[in-house]
Amino acid sequence: MKLIIYNIENSKANRPGERLCRVNRGTGVFTFSGELAKCMELKTGDRVIVANDQEDKKDWYICKTNSVAGFVVTGKDKALLIRNSFVAGLLLGSIKVEKSASFLVAKEPVVIEGEKYYQLITTKPINVDATKKFKKKG
To answer: CA 24 from chain center: how many Å?
Structure first.
């Protein structure tokens, strides 16, 4: 017998109340959960930057910014997002993920030069390369 074990690491399940960021290489979309948006005080029209630690390439951060150089947050309420295929590819490539993954985000930010940077927990990505498949009706 060879069992397939299903758990929170490999099952597509809603994770209400979690600070999550989903990154998709193909679309370049970074989706922020409602809880993460609340924690970061994000809303449509705000701007976000994505940062990578030059000393540890697997350490990634997101930060709300007032800079016009930040990525513009779009979407509604519990489905806020930014888009950038280049950065999504760099992030996923640094942890050897092909298509997409969700990441828990640290509750407490790292403050650098007065800005709050929230770390993506890249050591244990969730729903790696999960894709939705729908069957045609009829």
So the answer is: 8
pLDDT band at 5 (very low <50, low <70, confident <90, very high): confident
Write the DSSP string, 14-64.
--TT--EEEEETTT-EEEE-HHHHHHHT--TT-EEEEEE-SSSTT-EEEEE
Say which residues have a Cβ less than 8 Å from residue 103's Cβ, sequence separation at least 6: 20, 21, 22, 23, 60, 120, 121, 122, 125, 126
Q: What is the largest CA-CA distance in the chain?
A: 58
pTM of the full structure = 0.81
Residue 23 has which token pair?
């990154």
Count Cβ atoms below 10 Å from residue 86 Cβ, excluding itself: 8
pLDDT one-digit tens code per residue, 52-82: 999 988 999 999 999 999 999 999 877 899 9
Comparing 13 with 99, the larger pLDDT belongs to 99
Q: Exposure string (b/e) for 2-37, b if CB count within 10 Å is 16 or more?
A: eeeeeeeeeeeeeeeeebbbbbbbeebbbbbbbbbb
